[in-house]
Amino acid sequence: CEILSSLPLQMSLYFNVYFFPFWWLVTVAILYLKYPVLSDYYKFILVTIMILVSLTELIRLYLGYVGNLLEKVPELAGFWLLTLLPQLPVILFLLFNEGLKIHSLERAVHIVFAAFLSFQVVAAFFTLKRMVNTLATRFRLTEFHRLEEQRPGPGIYSLAPGSSS
């Protein structure tokens, strides 16, 4: 029985679990400091982003752990999609939008978080690909063995006793 989990992905998830609270505290502290000088629409956008990222990250990390460690394709696919679609674009928005008056510490933690997300997108993709291929092969082999067991053996089609040919 081959292990399909990815050690690099699991290590990245492990370190991400410890980095995320640090990222969150730094981002909230800097948001608190620069909040008065931001325009109204950036205030709304940043508060919405913090809520969205916080909720999504908790779900994303849980799905990543379960999907990778227990080799569950749906959970790992959910992790990959949550990483690729809301998280990575939002962090890149926070990193590259100069209208947000980005502080240097904020830029540093966003770069580290974006690096985690980028690595996890690539690692989860290859892990998912390997899991799906292996599980599809196992399924085909079990179906083949099931059909082989149902196939009649030689001599089944012989004439019934008492009949002449």
TrEMBL record:
Pfam family, one: Transmemb_17
Subcellular location: Cell projection, Cilium membrane
Coiled coil spans: none
Role of this protein: Transmembrane component of the tectonic-like complex, a complex localized at the transition zone of primary cilia and acting as a barrier that prevents diffusion of transmembrane proteins between the cilia and plasma membranes. Required for ciliogenesis and sonic hedgehog/SHH signaling.
GO biological process entries: non-motile cilium assembly
Statement: the UniProt record of this protein carries the keyword Lyase: no
Name of protein: TMM17 protein
Subunit: Part of the tectonic-like complex (also named B9 complex).
Keywords: Cell membrane, Cell projection, Cilium, Cilium biogenesis/degradation, Membrane, Transmembrane, Transmembrane helix
GO CC field: ciliary membrane; ciliary transition zone
Membrane topology: Multi-pass membrane protein
Principal localisation: membrane
Entry keyword Membrane: yes
Segments traversing the membrane: 13-32, 44-65, 77-96, 108-128
Superkingdom, natural source: Eukaryota
InterPro entries: Uncharacterised_TM-17
Family the UniProt entry places it in: Belongs to the TMEM17 family.
